Amino acid sequence: MGKKEFTKGLSPDGEDRLRIRMTLKKGKVIDVVVQYESKIKERWYPIVRYDCSHGFFHRDLLNPKGEEIKQSISIQNLRDALTYAEQDIKDRWEWYKEIFKKGMKQ
Asked: Which of 32, 45, 39 is nearest to 76 (CA)?
């Protein structure tokens, strides 16, 4: 069983990143975590996380209080799920960050 973990920058200033962790067994993806993190006021915050930690693939939208809104995503193949999660975050990270920052003001 092999594990891979790496980060990819999302913003030019380096304050937004995509963290990807996957576990492979005989070349097949058996576990994934794709998380968008942003550095706000000198602190890194997880904002969106895709994983299959509860036995199903889902997205957690996190807020500044640490609460999660869980949404099931109907993708069975974890390689496809990984692609979906990465693309969603790349396409929408600015929107996710804006919503998170609005929650900080409340």
From this structure: 32
Q: Would you say 100 and 38 are in contact if contact means Cβ atoms under 8 Å apart?
A: yes
CB 100 within 8 A of CB 37: no
How do the pLDDT tens digits run along the chain, 106 residues long? 899 999 999 999 999 999 999 999 998 888 999 999 999 999 999 999 999 988 899 999 999 998 999 999 999 899 999 999 999 999 999 999 999 999 998 6
Beta bridge partners of 28: 25
Nearest to 43 by CA among 5, 100, 87, 85: 100
d(CA 58, CA 72): 4
